[in-house]
Amino acid sequence: MVFAIAEAFAPATVANLGVGFDILGLAVEGAGDTVLVEKRSEPGAVILSIEGDEGRIPYDADRNVASIAANAVLKQIQAEEGVGIILKKGLPIGSGLGSSAASSVAAAVAVNALFGEPLKRHELLGACLEGEAAVSGYHADNVAPALLGGITLTTGTGLSDIQRLPVPDTLRLVLVSPAVEVSTAAARRVLPADVSLKLMVHQTGAVARLVDAIYRGDVVAMARAMGDDHVIEAARAKLMPYLHEAREAAIQAGALTLVISGAGPTLCAVLNSSDAETSVAQALEDVYTQHKMACVVRKTGVAVDGARVLQTN
Ligand code: HSE
């Protein structure tokens, strides 16, 4: 069955999970982007309107991640018709919450729904990555969890490179997004081109411990491994306002650790229950308030289901 319109939502994501640079990520409950597509007789994707971006996202179909992902799906399914896109941004740009991945994924899922779901969910990964690559680089640690939900391990860009990991029952997160922007490109430029063998052994050990802890549902060990990154945070810390202060405050208030979410500046505190959620959220807000910097705090958990179709008609 084909439709005249379809609408899809894709969640925010936390990439890297500390040590798992470019390979680990999780989908977050609550916030995300929504894309509505309507069928057009002309081939290809055009952007009809963009809401919630304060006029910052390009309408040019070759530069907009939603239309790039939509065009990739249209090509994949060999559609003769095209789509008009209404992009509703729920996520701030350059915040470390997988904003471009959410737009790409919501667009790909909406186009697939419009044409009666010719592709399985995981078959949309390549199209989502094309969108993401336009602004963030060719890595799937945000698009995979936004598309599939849960916690994902992505070691390449093919379908067989994605593993869904179990979500520990007691895992809770508090995210704080200070009102500054850090582009992924800028946050990648500060990274070292090479690391020593000693650091490589340390980092791979921490990733291995993290994956093991996730499988065992051991959030304490998970947090310990997440926070054991000696490569990425060391290079990026200077771009994240009050990172060390925020970590100390979050841990004092009951969090197990705090890591940079994706390329930042959002920070992600990790908790083993919802008991301390409110005090961690308050402690993080206080850090930025004391420095007269606005911030948004979100108490959340892992969204197990990822992107979803909201309507077809
Ligand atoms: N893994 C990416 C990074 C996520 O940290 O640069 C941001 O897109």
UniProtKB/TrEMBL annotation:
Pfam families associated with the record: GHMP_kinases_C, GHMP_kinases_N
Amino acids binding ATP: 92-102
Gene Ontology BP term (one): threonine biosynthetic process
Domain of life from the UniProt record: Bacteria
Gene3D superfamilies: 3.30.230.10, GHMP kinase, C-terminal domain
Principal location: cytoplasm
InterPro entries named among the record's database cross-references: FAD-bd_PCMH, GHMP_kinase_C_dom, GHMP_kinase_C_sf, GHMP_kinase_N_dom, GHMP_knse_ATP-bd_CS, Homoserine_kinase, Ribosomal_Su5_D2-typ_SF, Ribsml_uS5_D2-typ_fold_subgr
A GO-annotated cellular component: cytoplasm
Transmembrane feature ranges: none
Domain (FAD-binding PCMH-type) ranges: 1-193
Homology family: Belongs to the GHMP kinase family. Homoserine kinase subfamily.
Name of protein: Homoserine kinase
Species this chain originates from: Phototrophicus methaneseepsis
